[in-house]
Every structure is written in C-alpha cells, then in structure tokens.
Amino acid sequence: MTLFSANLGFLWQELPLPDAIRAAKAAGFDAVECHYPYDVPVEAVRSALQETGFAMLGINTTRGNVAAGDNGLAAVPGREAEARQAIDQAIDYAIAIGTPNVHVMAGKASDEAGRVTFIANLKYACERAAKAGVTILIEPLNHRDAPGYFLQTSEQGLEIIEAVGAPNIKLMFDCYHLQIMQGDLTRRLQTYLNSIGHIQIASVPDRREPDHGEVDYRYILNLLEELGYDRPIGAEYRPVGSTGEGLQWLKDFKERTGSRPA
Fold first, then answer.
1. CA-CA-CA-CA torsion for 58, 88, 104, 19, nearest 10 degrees?
2. Is 94 left (phi over 0), alpha (psi -120 to 50) or beta?
3. Is 59 within 8 Å of 36 (Cβ atoms)?
4. Rounded distance between C-alpha atoms, residue 27 and residue 153, angstroms
5. CATH number at residue 188
6. What per-residue confidence (pLDDT) applies to 260?
7. Of 139, 159, 209, 255, which one is the catalytic site residue?
8. Does the residue 260 lie in any domain?
9. DSSP state, residue 185
10. In a domain, 262, yes or no
C-alpha cells in the first residue's frame, strides 16, 4: 500500500500546526510535511509529532521578503548572507524536530550569475546538513505559479545536483509543476528515480485534490510501486473546500486497483 504525507502548507491551514498534525493522523495520512514552520515553537511541533508517531518529512527555507516579491533566496546574486541565514534556520529547525529533508528555495534569477550563486549556496547547505544527516532538496517550479523562478525543469535540477557534487542533495519531483513544464512524467520517474528525494502530487491544471485532471495518479502510483519506491508521497494541493471534506481520494488511492504499467 502506498503511503501518503499531508502537506500542511496547504492542508488544514485553519488549524495551528500542531493541531494540523493531529488532524492528518486522524484522517489516515502516514506522515506530514510543511512549508514554513518557523513561527511555531519547536517544542509544540515535536510534541505533536511524538504524540502521533509521525515524521515531519520536509520543510522549506524561508521565501524572504514576500511583499517585495521574493520566492526564495539561494540563487539570488548579492543576497548570499540572507540565503545562508535561511539555510541555517531551516537546518536547525529540522534537526530539532527530526526532519530528514530541507527544501532550499532558489528564488528569482535567470542568468549564469544565478546558477553560480545557487550552486555555491547549495554546497554550503549540503556541508552544513551532512553533519546532521539531513538531505537537501531542490524543486523545479512551473512558470505560471512561480514566474521568474530560477529552477524550472528536472534536467536543470539534475545538472545543478551534479555540479554541487554532494551525496546529500536530491530532486523534489513535484508532479504538478513538472507536468505543466515538461510532461512525460512516467519516463522522467523511471529515468531519474535514483536522484529523487521526495515526490509530490496534485491535480493538473487546477492544483486541487489529485483524483481528477489530466494526470492519472493511480497509474503513477502503480508505476512507483513497480519501481520499488516506498517512501510517502506528498499531497501538496489546495482543497476545493475544507480539507476533511475532500479526502475521499486518500481512501480510494490506498485501496486502488488497476493494471500495472507495462
């Protein structure tokens, strides 16, 4: 049976983070992940995780000054000090709550200077994270939801990973973003699986519950089982209504039947 992680950046947003963790447990999820937990005391999150027996699979570095248009800092030339502060903050928080992955957000950049800056900051992040057994993730984002974002394709991400050259950096494979940007999800998963640290799903094109739209996730989940991928799949979508009202997909996906991919 496939395992699923509730992304609390989008699910149960009306609840404080510790209560959202408890709600995910009650709803039948197997783990949780979130975006920016930094306003919540470590002790409260750690207590909720211990109570539920959950792992918080991943957190993001901060986006920076959102009001000014920031969407991450690590690839932005001239802001290296801020980027590394965000990296330190995320790794320290991850260590405190036992989180194995930190997604380092690239931010808006478009030229070689952005690439050089991103690689240098990722090398810093990987060295810092390795001491605690934490994996660094980088995630391509689509150009509609994240205009100007530096990292937009899986191949670009893999080239960056190779350039960083650290054993603890992996690709965050968000099916929603990559379907919009590139498609061909089956072949990309088959080809790049060893470089993938986490997989996320949402319907395309509306980023709602993953049981409709142009991607057949039953097929994708069967494929991943065939490939031997056994880590929780991140449910990172925006519910149509309340989170609880839209969770029939979770039961259906766990009980799914169907032909295996050839």
1. 30
2. alpha
3. yes
4. 33
5. 3.20.20.150
6. 43
7. 139
8. no
9. H
10. no
Residue type, 168: N
- Of the candidates 33, 43, 82, 236, the residue annotated as catalytic is 236
Domain residues for the domain of 63 are 4-254
The 10s digit of each residue's pLDDT in 240-250 is: 999 999 999 99
Distance of CA 208 to the CA centre of its chain: 16
What is d(CA 34, CA 146) in angstroms, rounded to the nearest whole number?
18
Start-to-end Cα distance in the chain: 19
Q: Are strands 101-103 and 196-201 parallel, antiparallel or unpaired?
A: unpaired
- The CA distance from 243 to 209, in Å, is 9
Please say if 139 is a catalytic residue: yes
Length of the chain: 262
* Residues 6 or more apart whose Cβ sits within 8 Å of residue 236: 7, 9, 10, 33, 174, 176, 200, 201, 202
User: Is-cis flag, bond preceding 147, omega within 30?
Assistant: no
Q: Which residues pair with 58 in a beta bridge?
A: 101
Using pLDDT thresholds of 50, 70 and 90, give the confidence band for residue 1.
confident
Is residue 147, in this structure, part of any structural domain at all?
yes
236 in catalytic set: yes
Copy the structure tokens of residue 68: 């000014």
Tell me if the pTM is above 0.85. yes
Residue with tokens 């900051």: 121
Cα angle 136, 141, 146; round to 5: 125
Residue 261 pLDDT level (bands cut at 50, 70, 90)? very low
